[in-house]
Design brief:
About 35% of the residues lie in helices and about 25% in strands. By secondary structure, the chain is of the alpha+beta class. The structure holds ligand BES and manganese (II) ion (MN).
């Protein structure tokens, strides 16, 4: 049976199964959801075993998260040990769904409207992962001459930059099962609705929490204002000093010195693939976007999100924050959470060093401050001219009927760099999502046409010579 026919014949069941998987609130940021994490693992284990996979849950010898470590679900379907092995990556953990009242239907009660399935994790990553599971089912049941062994490696700490997955990759007890020829990752969106996107680079991330303290307790701002340094004001000052938001320049000295200079061809490729500032403005309903101009040239957004480091503040906390009420204090302290997205050759270590010595310089002596790195991962890059990308681009084109583009991605998928360093497989990253899927936002969705197209992409890859 051809794939199309197979998909149509089983579509109702596929949607039912995907709904089941999406109903599990496997939120990794909150330890209260540990039982849902386990439920997601069990669901996948049961599903993959039914298809004929042998499964195992993997934990490192000494997980640094101890009892809170979320296991990797590993599965293998071996055709012939001498044939090449492709390992399919996915993550079963999801982001928290808040703010809940912005969801049209509840985040863990998946709803199909207008050819799209709405739920937390619909795109990121359960929907894309399930597309690969559909492909595996077809391959196992319908393909006679199988050229590949397939494995799944499905982690549960992607959304918290968790250490467990990296510890598993580094753990030599797993070296025989992880040394694969190819790693297949569908965990991101296309660059535009008509541009299927294959990823050749991912940014890394260094995520920090900065604590500032100038007083043991809050004090009266009328008595001491102008005299005692205010940590909330200082937080604003530090944020201002970290980045020029109108010119899109990080102000930390030497940050740009370490950044890889892309070739002219690569820049051309990226410029051609890029959406416009207006498209992005509409996509997220933003009031202001900040085009990057240098020496009279305006660079398109993808240059900024794919090839440059960026710095964003994620949260600020200080002082009196009750809406509508007032209290005149100089707060004792302030917290700022911020991250820097990294591109080669800006490593996490290097970045932390630069941030630390800059803060040393700009925070007045006498203020107590503490910089904590909450998590991090180095950037990933491969030459977009690598030969193994050719077959991938061909099958993506055939699966979706549109010409694909090769793109550097702004997001981060921590394990890719670790995996590449340790085992150096071919890394294939065909995204199945669309730009308006709302990753990490309310009303996250995944188009059913992408579910089918994604499954078809992997089927074609597995069956084409
Ligand atoms: N699937 C995303 C990563 C992604 C986003 C890839 C957009 C390509 C384009 C992933 O689930 C994610 O959100 N990762 C986090 C990692 C962080 C928590 C360390 C990210 O990029 O913020
Ligand atoms: Mn993801």
């Amino acid at each position: 049976m051809g794939f199309k026919e197979f998909y149509e014949a089983n579509k109702e069941r596929f949607l039912q199964e995907l709904k089941e998987f999406l109903s599990i609130p496997s939120i990794s940021t909150d330890p209260a959801h540990k039982k849902d994490i386990n439920a997601a693992v069990d669901w996948l284990k049961n599903k993959l075993e039914t298809l004929g996979f042998e499964t195992k849950t993997l934990l490192p010898t000494k997980p640094s998260l101890g009892k809170n470590a979320n296991p990797v679900l590993y599965a293998e379907y071996t055709v012939d040990k001498n044939k090449p092995t492709i390992m399919i990556y996915g993550h079963y953990d999801v982001q928290p769904p808040e703010p809940l009242d912005e969801w049209k239907t509840p985040p863990f009660a998946p709803d199909i409207r207008d050819g799209k399935i709405y739920a937390r994790g619909a795109n990121d990553n359960k929907g894309q992962l399930y597309a690969n599971i559909i492909a595996a089912e077809y391959y196992i049941k319908e393909v006679k001459e199988k050229q590949y062994n397939i494995k799944f490696f499905i982690e549960g700490e992607e959304e918290i930059g968790g250490p467990t997955t990296n510890e598993i990759i580094e753990d030599s007890q797993f070296k025989d099962i992880l040394a694969v020829d190819t790693l297949w990752i569908a965990d991101g969106p296309w660059i535009a609705h008509n541009k299927p996107s294959v990823v050749y680079a991912l940014r890394g991330i260094a995520y920090f929490d900065l604590y500032l303290e100038n007083l043991p307790q809050d004090i009266h701002s009328g008595i001491y204002g102008n005299v005692v340094l205010n940590p909330a004001n200082l937080a604003g000052y530090v944020i201002f000093k970290l980045k020029d938001i109108l010119r899109n320049r990080i102000r930390i000295p030497k940050i740009y010195k370490s950044v890889r200079k892309p070739s002219k061809e690569e820049i051309k490729l990226v410029e051609a693939a890029s959406p416009t500032y207006d498209e992005i403005k509409q996509e997220v309903n933003a009031g202001v976007v900040t085009p990057y101009r240098r020496k009279g040239t305006t660079f398109p957004p993808l240059v900024l999100t794919g090839l440059k480091p960026s710095l964003d503040v994620h949260g600020i906390y200080s002082g009196f924050t009750k809406p509508g009420q007032l209290k005149t204090i100089i707060p004792a302290n302030a917290w700022v959470k911020f991250s820097i997205r990294l591109v080669p050759h800006l490593t996490v270590e290097k970045t932390e060093e630069l941030v630390r010595s800059y803060l040393q310089q700009i925070i007045p002596k006498g203020v107590t401050w503490k910089l904590t790195r909450l998590f991090s991962g180095d950037p990933f890059y491969m030459d977009p001219a690598r030969p193994e990308l050719k077959k991938l681009l061909e099958v993506v084109k055939e699966a979706f009927g549109k010409d694909p583009v090769l793109v550097p991605e702004g997001g981060s998928i921590g394990l890719v760099t670790t995996f590449a360093r340790k085992y150096n497989p071919a890394i294939l990253m065909p995204n199945y999502g669309l730009p308006d899927d709302g990753l990490h936002s309310p009303n996250e969705k995944f188009n059913l046409s992408q579910l089918e197209g994604g499954a078809k992409t992997l089927v074609l890859y597995l069956t084409k010579k």
